[in-house]
Amino acid sequence: MTIAVTGATGQLGRLVLEELLTNQEPASLVAVVRDAAKAEELRARGVQVRVADYSDPAALEAALAGVDKLLLVSGSEVGARVAQHANVVTAAKAAGVGFIAYTSVLAADTTELILAPEHKATEQLIRGSGLGFTFLRNGWYTENYAQTVATARQTGAVVAAAGDGRVASATRADYAAAAAAVLTTAGHEGRTYELSGDHAWDFEELATAITELAGKEVVYRPVSAPELVQLLTAAGLDEGTAGFLAALDTDTKAGLLATVTGELSGLIGRPTTPLLQALQSAAAS
Asked: What secondary structure does DSSP assign to 179-248, as a single string?
């Protein structure tokens, strides 16, 4: 069985390959990358490295030749992802891939989360392709708060428009372990997994964790979404990015990232990584 991972040198794809390398022959793994130079370490370990961009259908089809199972790691270009993902799905079908696992988002077909529409559309594309599939609806990554941690260590405050909203986050390594399990064990085809951390923390807890990490007091300072936009633009962000980040906080305040399902820890056979431990690991790296 040959397994391919797209975005294989990215933050999530790289970790999935590390998980796969613990129990799969390197030659049975395909790393689909945009920049071969970034994958030299994988090539040296015996992984097949194939170059293809999500915007290049011909290269994608060539890269997926002989692949049995594919992990499609969602692209990072918000607004362009549906077309890019469609290219991958079409290429996978043309190349004879039998199964696609896709990294989606929690409750993709029902949530009001600002990031969900492209994931919902991609799920529909995959369902319509006739290929076997599993949807890995990943919740929030704890590493998404790395900049929040860095800023709070300097200023002594976590400033957010999230109110008393909670986040059931887990680490990229947790989600990567789930993806590897789905790719290498039976019984997952046709399944949709709602994946999230075992505990939904609030921003007071985040501030407490950063306090322990930083060795000085950090407090949570809630603000309104318009206030956050003002603060972010004053710090140098453009209006579009500031508005997007404020919208994410608004979604958090509405509870859209708080769902705890237990399905992630069930797939990986262990508890998800606790908030403080995750932040300590992120800081160390």
From this structure: HHHHHHSSS-TT-EEEE--S--EEHHHHHHHHHHHHTS--EEEE--HHHHHHHHHHTT--HHHHHHHHHH
